[in-house]
């Protein structure tokens, strides 16, 4: 029986074409089949590797220089990976040295772009640059003034509030590695915050997630992020009060 015939007789097989989720695995006695179990263990290993992966700071710095913007390499209050995982609060603020360094770059600008490792440096190493190659020209064409691009090691989402505020930016955009799952270990999340400042919480942000070649590709992600940025400036807010009405515009 070929694959088409299997899909006709088993509706679950047809659904597998639309999701990477583990559905319809079957079973051998009370356990899952050996192949499915081995694939699960491999996915789990990839997820663990991503959590402990290293941000390619030197490579990213060289690549980001093409945008003709200063590139700052800073560090959160979490000194090492184990501490970062156990103390999320330390990943939300800069360490003392970085907090002092960023003061030298305060100016008046529109958007601060931050690139952080988060929970998957692998995702950032692979997907941040293709996204920025589309977003930065969009921002330039819209005459948005960009702050120095900041690379953060051991960073959490909220660290963008402190960085953008210190740089004098009206809006922050942080690209960060998302928590790896068993179907995706290379996903980047983009968080947009209008009027960023220390002390904000997640309801103040808009998020575009699952940015990766097998998820939301760079072109689609760039369009969505730029739409939200434009709406944030137009409405002078972000987060739960900013509704994504892009799909309604063509109705």
What distinguishing features does this structure have?
251 residues; six-stranded mixed β-sheet; 6 strands; alpha/beta; single chain; Rossmann fold; 9 helices
Task: Describe what you observe in this structure.
Helix 7 (121-141) packs across helix 9. 38% of the residues are buried. This protein has a single domain (59-243), classed as Rossmann fold (3-Layer(aba) Sandwich). With 251 residues, it is α/β, with parallel strands linked by helices. It contains nine helices and six strands. A six-stranded mixed sheet has the order 1-3-2-4-5-6, sandwiched between helices.
CATH class: Alpha Beta
The total number of structural domains is 1
Distance between the termini: 44 Å
- How many helix segments? 9
Radius of gyration: 20 Å
Spans of at least 5 consecutive residues with low confidence: none
Question: Do you know the CATH architecture?
Answer: 3-Layer(aba) Sandwich
Order of neighbouring strands in the sheet with most strands: 1-3-2-4-5-6
Provide the β-strand percentage band.
15-25%
CATH fold topology: Rossmann fold
Can you count the beta strands? 6
Overall, the morphology is globular
The largest pleated sheet is described as: 6 strands, mixed
Mean pLDDT: 89
Structural class, from helix and strand content?
Answer: alpha/beta
Output the CATH homologous superfamily.
Answer: Ethanolamine ammonia-lyase light chain (EutC)
In short:
The chain has a single domain, classed as Ethanolamine ammonia-lyase light chain (EutC) (Rossmann fold), CATH 3.40.50.11240.
